[in-house]
Amino acid sequence: MTREKDFQNFLVLLSTIAVGTPQRDKIDEDVIESYYVLLEDMPFDIVKINTINAVHKNGWFPMINEIRGESTNQLEEKAREEYAYIEQILKRFWFDELPESSLNTIERKLEEAGKSYLFPTLNLYGMEILSGENPSATRSQIVKILQIEGKRREQDQLAGPEQKRIEETNKMLEGIGKAG
User: Fold this and answer.
1) What is the C-alpha separation between 31 and 17, in angstroms, rounded?
2) Residue 111, burial from CB neighbour count under 10 angstroms (0-12, 13-18, 19+)
């Protein structure tokens, strides 16, 4: 999560949920700040969904591990899907006698599918995936890559508006420099 905007959203989310739970008197801004610090490495959307699901499921204010647990399960499920996708791509486009050409084709196919972030995993663990030696270790690497990709996307989303402001400021400064 990102500091200012997400903290405000997080504060609203948890404050609203706290009102409807039996623990409402014990949940103040300090508790919410502690939750935020412990969950800030997760995307806000996942925190929001997992928090709401935990309240619906249990009927009380969720604990950190309940919010995090859902996220871990979601990432592992996504890693299984991505592993299966990589396996499918390898079986279809990998040719032992043309390794470099195969890698180029596979990289292009991943880009076309919007999954170019999987290419480093494929490059490092492709032979292991083909051999089927240790799929759980490879999936754990995919979980790490999905976490990194989630953070990168979050940063890209934030960089968009900030970058626009920087460009606008630079244009204004250029205009002032030309006028003077």
Assistant:
1) 13
2) exposed
Burial of 7 (0-12, 13-18, 19+ CB in 10 A): middle
Residue 97 is given by DSSP the state T
Mind listing the pLDDT tens digit for each residue in 43-61? 777 788 888 888 888 777 7
Q: Band of the pLDDT at 172, cuts 50, 70, 90?
A: low
pLDDT 10s digits, 15-27: 777 777 666 677 7
Kindly tell me the burial class for residue 21, based on how many C-beta atoms sit within 10 Å of its own C-beta (0-12, 13-18, 19 or more).
middle
Strand residue runs (E) in 6-114: none
- Which tokens hold the place of 139? 């999936």
